[in-house]
Design brief:
Blueprint: E1 3-9, E2 15-22, E3 25-31, E4 41-51, E5 59-60, E6 67-82, E7 85-92, E8 96-105, E9 108-113, E10 120-122, E11 128-136, H1 148-151, H2 166-177, H3 190-199, H4 208-220, E12 224-228, E13 236-240, E14 246-248, E15 255-257, E16 262-266, E17 269-273, E18 289-297, H5 303-317, E19 321-324
Parallel strand pairs: 10-13
Antiparallel strand pairs: 1-2, 1-6, 2-3, 3-4, 4-9, 5-6, 6-7, 7-8, 8-9, 11-18, 11-19, 12-18, 13-16, 14-15, 16-17
Helix pairs in contact: 3-4, 4-5
């Protein structure tokens, strides 16, 4: 995929250069502010094309034109490319999701990060194949019940489009081990816990959001996180937690050390992972919007995508609506 970069530039006055890789050059706009908030409208001036070397460059600019530092970088794709309007989907560390650039007059443009998606930044990772989407329920979860047919899927023998096996379990463990985390014992992947719970007949219905998460994880073998979007604080991003990071994961106040583990972070720190989700962002009776993360791995090509497709179909069959998050 083509790349983009946003460079903070201190000359002639502070601004941000937004550059898109198009063929052998970088289309460039000078932004009056960095795109930090969904719905933010930013004045953008189209300036001359730049060389591709700026995709990886930080430092002084020739001719005494100050210096640039990388504010964000990543990849993008386009759904609309016209002379006076561009519709993009950005996938960077700080900026992730749909954006539009619209010509106002002459070389004056406006950039807007779309309001219809929750931005989700994802750190570069050699193994992660993440899928993320938002679900909107017609009523609070406390007023909804999973249908009998849906609950029947909470069985290893239930007909399902995906089946887990030892190769899936090992690939998931390798994904979690990559940052130094040890996915064993009480810290094993949530998908493995579900198999044990079903075998011991201890898995029961919680609410529609969690039931769907459990059904899909059980059969696909991929861990799935689901958080209440209205209990999380933007911005959101996915990355490996630093050493010593932890969070409380149940109402009893027990905590898990997530150092080295891929996690979902909000403004207050880690709040979800492939092992356990945090108590502070868990769903409850008043939940109406959730963010689901499927922790897929590149070692299992297409499995995360297939899992996401089935997951969303199950929720929509139960009356919910789903839409993409700003993830991959």
């Amino acid at each position: 995929m083509p790349r983009f970069v946003i460079l903070e530039h201190d000359h002639p006055s502070l601004h941000w250069d937004f550059m898109l890789e198009v063929g052998e050059v970088l289309w460039t706009w000078r932004l009056s502010a960095p795109p930090e908030e969904v719905g933010q409208r930013i004045a953008a001036q189209r300036i001359g094309e730049h060389r591709r070397l700026y995709l990886d460059y930080e430092g002084p600019v020739s001719g005494g034109r100050g210096a640039v530092t990388r504010w964000d970088a990543g990849t993008y794709d386009t759904s609309l490319l016209q002379p006076d309007r561009l519709r993009l989907r950005l996938q960077g560390r700080r900026v992730s999701g749909p954006a539009e650039l619209t010509r106002i007059e002459g070389e004056q443009w406006e950039m807007v990060m779309s309001e219809d998606l929750v931005p989700l930044g994802v750190d570069a990772h050699p193994l992660l194949d993440l899928r993320a989407f938002i679900t909107e329920f017609p009523r609070p979860l406390g007023e909804l019940a999973s249908s009998p047919g849906f609950l029947a899927l909470m069985s290893l023998d239930a007909p399902a489009p995906l089946r887990s096996d030892d190769s899936v379990r090992e690939a998931v463990r390798n994904l979690l081990r990559h940052g130094g985390f040890k996915p064993t014992g009480r810290s094993k992947p949530a998908s493995e816990y579900l198999i044990k719970a079903v075998t011991e007949k201890t898995l029961s219905s919680i609410n529609l959001a969690v039931d769907a998460c459990n059904v899909v994880s059980l059969h696909s073998g991929l861990p799935v996180s689901v958080v209440d979007l209205d209990r999380a604080r933007l911005p959101l991003h996915v990355g490996v937690a630093p050493a010593g990071a932890s969070y409380v994961f149940n109402a009893s106040g027990q905590s898990i050390d997530v150092g080295g583990l891929l996690c979902l972070f909000d403004a207050d720190g880690p709040c979800g992972s492939a092992v356990k989700d945090s108590q502070r962002t868990k769903t409850g009776p008043v939940t109406r919007r959730t963010l689901s993360l499927i922790w897929g791995t590149q070692a299992l090509p297409d499995r995360a995508a297939q899992t996401a497709t089935w997951y969303r179909r199950l929720l929509e069959q139960e009356g919910a609506q789903t839409k993409d998050a700003g993830g991959p």
